[in-house]
Amino acid sequence: MRLRYLYTLCLVLFTAGFASAQNVRKTESFNADWKFFLGDDTAASQVKFDDNRWRKLDLPHDWSIEGEFDSKNPTTQAEGGLPAGIGWYRKSFMIPASSKTKTILIDFDGVFHNSEVWINGHYLGKRPNGYISFRYDLTPYLKFGAQQNVIAVRVDNSDQPNSRWYTGSGIYRNVWLTTANKIHLPQWSSFITTPQVDHQKAAINIRTVLAGLVGSKLTLRASVLDDQGKVVGTVTSSVIDTVIQQNIRVMNPKLWSINHPNLYKVKLQLIAGNKVIDDYTTTTGIRYFNFDADKGFRLNGEPMKILGVCLHHDQGALGTAVNTRAIERQLQILKNMGCNAIRTSHNPPAPELLDLCDKMGFLVMDEAFDMWKKKKSKHDYHEDWDEWHVKDLQDQVLRDRNHPSIFAWSIGNEIREQFDSTGVSIGRELVKIVKQLDNTRPVTSALSDADPKKNFIYQSGALDLVGLNYHQEVYADFQKNYPGQKFIGTENMSALATRGHYDMPSDSIRRWPKDGKTPLKDGNADFTVSSYDNVSAYWGSTHEETWKIIKTHDFLSGLFVWTGFDYIGEPTPYLWPARSSYFGIVDLAGFPKDVYYMYQSEWTNKSVLHLLPHWNWKPGQLIDVWAYYNNADEVEAFLNGKSIGVRKKTGDDLHVMWRVKYEPGVLKAVSRRNGKVVMTTQVVTAGEPYKIQLKADRSKIKADGKDLSYITVSVLDKNNVPVPDANQLVKFKVTGQGVLKAVDNGSQTDLDPFVSDQHHLFNGLGLAIIQSKAVGGKITVTAAADGLQAGSVVIESLR
Ligand code: GAL
User: Fold this and answer.
1) Fold match, 191-284 / 691-798
2) Does 119 score more than 50 pLDDT?
3) First and final C-alpha spacing in the chain
4) Is 492 in the pocket of ligand 1 (CB under 6 A)?
5) Regarding the domain delimited by 26-181, which CATH topology (the fold level of the hierarchy) does it fall under?
6) pLDDT tens per residue across span 544-594
7) If 0-12 CB within 10 Å is exposed, 13-18 middle and 19+ buried, where does residue 620 land?
């Protein structure tokens, strides 16, 4: 039956009045002032336990990142060789006597993993999945007024190896404490959709499940607020059914899109008599999209390619401890490249990532699992599958389904069950779980067997979208092999590179050997990989190879490059001391590799002219010079003022090349369109290292104890030319209202710790991550190295 839409405008419904603050729910950060102990002590669950000697810290916290890289750690090289183990957290806190009549809830956004929680000695429960958000009701066990409560959390990440990438260990996401009235909106109870959208009007549907409250004479008021906080529509309904459907019409809606991520808010108020007894606000966006087997993807009716990257959840040197600014920086770097989509490989993400994607305009493929019943690592989630997969998947969809950025669910990555008939039954079961909670988005799975006749997850017939990992060679024939099906490249490329490293010549492609074990044949002794985009894993391709195919066919709706950033762990193709991945378009420290500019030239309209490599070589050496460019029909390069030729991309070329006998000096490139100069750029030979230069990505940050300024460290010669192979040990000093949080350089093999006040540069660059204190003021960062003039930068931290 078609739903009856009740459109009610905001004018009338003020009879209920707005609540005074103490009546409605309050959600506060519960991150501050925890005690931590690395090790196991079962007595720590008890109230009387003496934790005086434990370390004090604020959450989010990842203890693994504080450890030393060591190939003997049981996490193995797959997790970067960082330590794991067991850890305990405790926090003492008071709840005001005025809250005696309330419900007090604690929300953990994610704990890696096997968390167990006690409140005042009472066991609340266990949650094995390290990526899932969960809640406990503390109310029955709390003491109020001047009495202390103690919450204790045991985190067991000792069951190693349990992952193919770095997970981090601990309460690595935010924790929240909510105080609500006894009668309140249940967690994740509303589902907000936009069943009808055009540029003139949109219908917002709010479906709220209020089991247990029927017949209580309550009303539920829903209001839609625009980005100025103005109420644009309100409807009030009596709670007479378990499921309440409310519809609000928004005239001239500002649609959510990649370039204009307009957001609205839906405020729900539960009303008893004339009193608001609970309220809850959800961010939403008005948009529609569809996939077409012939034409690919459309957002709000406009054709667009999904230009995505896969991301793991670590934030490089910060480990996995969630920091909103760190995630935002990552997304800004990707946005600047033209990336418009993120696949949360291979697990539910931090809520902050989804909030940022809503706000910044990224599509998100929200992925659930890397394995089902069949394992990939000895102690991975397959051990918890039977008991937990239904609840975990349900909770993921319930938590995330209101985000406008999410356009697809993935029920799994390269799941082993695709190779046997259990792929049919489990595939159907999981799709059904998702669809029961959200039937507005397609469900896919990232399949690694591209043969439709042999792939049992595909054979389940349950997938809306066929997601293929790699197998780019069959993409052109997709419509023939998968008649009527819709395509998405769930994972692509797996090309390898080390930032700032170049091997000559550049014009042949090398693949990682097929046996999957031996390091790259003829690989470099220092475990670097050339940055000319000519090395890839054998199952993948260079960046150019796959992008050329995807861009050609409309039915190929898009792709997800493996990966946007390097991540800790999975250091294909090398063995120890390689400890982080080579797949990123951007290195672990956030410095773009050269291929970033290939994407920028293809994925954005802004003019690009990028020249590689650097210009410090041996005289007479033959050097391959590449240029990525767009918005121009030719590029001319000049070595010390003499033209070395004009190059034009022909056919499907994505770069041009000159082979040049090296001489020191200036290599300059000029791009032209119709004879007119579009851009010029140059690389210059650097002389002897002379001084350190520090550059802050943001020179003003918030004095909230969380915000970050990322300082890029480079070494310049006397003429201010950056020295491309600088690798000095740099020592940092931070004074004023900030702290040095971590250091990095983007090298995949550097075994020095990230949590340190010194670090070597790598291929000319280093990174210092500065965090504000909760007090405003100046932060001065200085960096010194033997034989060089020190550098400094001042950051203002503002209240
Ligand atoms: C894929 C896998 C990813 C990553 C990648 C490396 O097969 O889905 O998680 O391991 O290979 O190339």
Assistant:
1) yes
2) yes
3) 54
4) no
5) Jelly Rolls (2.60.120)
6) 999 999 999 999 999 999 999 999 999 988 889 999 999 999 999 999 999
7) exposed
Tokens standing for 731? 């020592």
Ligand 1 site, residue 445, Cβ cutoff 6 A: no
Query: 537 alpha carbon to ligand 1 midpoint, in Å?
Result: 10
- Cα(394)–Cα(409) distance, rounded to whole angstroms? 12
Catalytic member of 79, 116, 417, 491: 491
Nearest ligand 1 atom, CA 581: 6
Backbone angles phi, psi at 726, to 5 degrees: -60, 135
The band of 665, judged by pLDDT with boundaries at 50, 70 and 90, is very high
CATH superfamily ID and name for 691-798: Immunoglobulins (2.60.40.10)
Q: What is the mean pLDDT of residues 371-389?
A: 98
Per the listing, tokens 């069951």 go with 159
Task: Measure 583 CA to ligand 1 centroid, in angstroms.
Answer: 10
pTM above 0.70, yes or no: yes
545 is catalytic: no
Work out the number of other CB atoms within 10 angstroms of the CB of residue 15. Answer: 9
Distance from Cα 315 to the centre of ligand 1, integer Å: 19
Q: What is the mean pLDDT of residues 779-795?
A: 98
pLDDT in tens, 671-710: 999 999 999 999 999 999 999 999 999 999 999 999 999 9
Q: Where are the beta strands (DSSP E) in 32-189?
A: 34-38, 55-57, 85-93, 102-108, 115-119, 122-127, 134-137, 149-157, 175-181
CATH of 304-496+537-566, one of 3.40.50.720, 3.30.70.80, 3.20.20.80, 3.40.50.2300: 3.20.20.80
pLDDT score at 7:
33
391 pLDDT exceeds 80?
Answer: yes
Place of tokens 């001391």: 577
Cβ of residue 236 lying under 6 Å from some atom of ligand 1: no
Helix or strand holding residue 630 (H, E): none
pLDDT in tens, 1-24: 333 333 332 222 333 334 333 449
Q: Ligand 1 pocket test: which of 310, 365, 535, 562 has the largest number of ligand atoms within 8 Å of its C-beta?
A: 562
**Cα torsion through 30, 35, 38, 40, rounded to 10:** -90
With beta carbons less than 8 A apart as the criterion, state whether 605 and 594 touch: no
Ligand 1 center to residue 639 CA distance, Å?
41
The closest of 343, 404, 393, 351 to 368, measured between CA atoms, is 393
> Looking at domain 583-613+615-685, does it have CATH number 2.60.40.10?
yes
Closest residue by Cα to residue 438 from 135, 110, 190: 190
Domain boundaries, the chain: 26-181, 191-284, 304-496+537-566, 583-613+615-685, 691-798
Ligand 1: atom nearest CA of 494 is 12
User: What is the DSSP-derived secondary structure letter of residue 595?
Assistant: H
Residue to probe by mutation, ligand 1, list 376, 494, 520, 580, most atoms within 8 Å of CB: 494
In this structure, whether the domain defined by 191-284 belongs to CATH 3.30.450.20 is answered with no
Q: Residue 202 — φ and ψ, nearest 5°?
A: -140, 150
289 membership: H or E segment, kind and range:
strand 289-292
Task: Give the model confidence (pLDDT) of 153-162 as tens digits.
Answer: 999 999 999 9
Look at the block and give the residue holding tokens 């609970």.
278
In DSSP terms, which residues pair with 390 in a beta bridge?
none
